[in-house]
Amino acid sequence: MRESREHRRVPFAADARVYSSNYEQDGSIANLSIGGCFFATGKPSRTGELLQISFYTSGMVLRGKGVVRHVLPNSGMGIQFSDTTPQFRAAISFLSSPRQ
Q1: Cα–Cα separations (whole angstroms), residue 38 to 17, 62, 100
Q2: How far apart are CA 100 and CA 82, in angstroms?
Q3: Helix, strand, or coil here: 86?
Q4: Confidence (pTM)
Q5: Contacts of residue 85, Cβ cutoff 8 Å, sequence gap at least 6
């Protein structure tokens, strides 16, 4: 099965937390793109769940919103960013840009 993505994902490592009104979990971001990330955790949420996400990297605390698009049981979940601020998008764009 071939996965189609609008934005290229890059390997990434940052401790993170996701939460909603009935879910909260610490984990880590394993890859990142301007459109979303993979949140590695042994206890993923459910597909369709709206979440807040926060993580610290490169001297910045980033907070955004997203929706769970796919779940890998006992591994993590793919989160698509949504309703993001211009500052969040700019930071994610910088962090996910190819490095020379």
Answers
A1: 12, 15, 23
A2: 29
A3: helix
A4: 0.89
A5: 64
